[in-house]
Amino acid sequence: MKPLFEEKDRFMSNVLTHAWNYYARIYDGFQPVVIRLLGAFGELTYEEFEEHFVELAGVKPGQSVLDVACGTGASHETLSRAVEPKGSVVAVDISDEMLRRARQKAKRLKLANIRYRRAEADKLSQYFKESSFDVVLCCNGLPVFLNPERSLTEMARLVRSGGRLAVSTLNREKCDSHPMLRWKVRYPPGRFFYAHEYREMVAEKGFDSIQFHEEGLMLIIIADKKRKTDRNGEPAPERTARKRKRASRTRTV
């Protein structure tokens, strides 16, 4: 018999999936309107914020990028161009309908370097190996995740040594006084955090050079994963699963 909390998580995950599948039908037309009414992105439009976020993330040609909670792919044209010519993007979302619409956009825009798959943010390690990506992005996903802190841990685990984590979420300092959002960020407890709490959380996961950028009601967090070093203090190369397996086989001969 599975623990009660696992059954509860599964039930809530199914509820969220159905909700996002339904919302996906009106997302592209309705979401920018909601954002504008709340003043969530300050002076930036929905598209401008997505582009600004990718720019702050510092995505470079040739990098491998994971986009978590990708929605209908609002930033994917920008991401695709940023990693060209040899880079790649993997985009994940809990909603099949969001992914379907994102694929349609990618096909229309001829974005050949983006792959899509369904995945839950708090279970990313079930889908990807540790240290798989140069950059892991999550634009505005944390506020709607079932387990924001666990999701952040999962995202951090997938960033390579020397890689980057870029996350945008609601700015608790700003939302505490917002008439429409102050209750959302307070209840239930443990879902929304202040900047200094995010700094501690990210640092504990092995990141430094942590930067914060404010835009409207949003807080953008940019952090670099500490590079692994060898005994001489020199940068140690990443060891892929294939290399680790080969090294293990060599030792047993």
Automatic annotation (TrEMBL):
UniProt name for this protein: Methyltransferase domain-containing protein
Keyword S-adenosyl-L-methionine: no
Comp. bias intervals (Basic residues): 241-253
CDD domains membership: AdoMet_MTases
Keywords, sorted A to Z: Methyltransferase, Transferase
MF annotations from Gene Ontology: methyltransferase activity
Feature: compositional bias, Basic and acidic residues: 230-240
Record-annotated Methyltransferase domain positions: 61-181
Gene Ontology terms: biological process: methylation
Region annotation (Disordered) ranges: 228-253
InterPro entries with a match to the protein in the record: Methyltranfer_dom, Methyltransf_Superfamily, SAM-dependent_MTases_sf
Name of one Pfam family that matches: Methyltransf_31
